[in-house]
Amino acid sequence: MQAPPLIWLDADDDFPPVDLAWGEDSPMPGLLAAGGVLDAPHLQAAYQRGIFPWFSPGQPNLWWSPDPRMVLKTSDFRLHPSLRKTVRKFIRMPGYEVRIDTSFRQVITHCANTPRAGQNGTWIVPEILEAYCDLHAQGLAHSVETWVNNELVGGLYCIALGQAVYGESMFAHATDASKVALAALVGLCRHHGATQIDCQQATAHLASLGAREQSRADFLTEAARQQQQPAMDWNFRPVYWDTLC
What we know:
Shape: globular
Number of strands: 11
Oligomer: single chain
Distance between the termini: 49 Å
Radius of gyration: 18 Å
Number of helices: 7
Helix content: 25-40%
């Protein structure tokens, strides 16, 4: 299948409208543009428009806005019995805890380096890592971390603009450690009234936890509304578990 023309961005170019992204009948559905600058200001501008970067080492900056979009409505999160048991263990066991934003660089580095079934290499290349760390320093990127006896065993990182949350990547070095982090993020979102977590691309794993595809237009409408809400308090409090268990 022949690819349609691709929009190439110069350093000073704004992002094109998302409805110019390649469609389902193209070789790479959701691809919007290539090139441009990958730094914290451009990342913020991209997320405000429903765009995110995703590319492999050796490729140019690639910017995406798929339609449909994989989204986890926080009200739809599925706490399966085995995960519920694990969460309850984290609640009651000494030395088991959830922390937020204590080791952001460590979390994103683990996300980049942890092997994943069916994947070779990582999209979290050094320039991606540094740009998201800069966003974290500005209070716009966050890590949700699972710790056991002061050892980081799992976690995730995300972007938050107001109450619009954009999930990025997870890692686990212990069974269900990343799922516990996701459950904690859902609890925080429910407590503050945040309605959805962007999951970007459809996977069976995310679907099993309650995520589903929705139109890009519907996703962007709700994300724009959530961006206008006050930022959440990114400190984990045990009361957040009450929304789940």
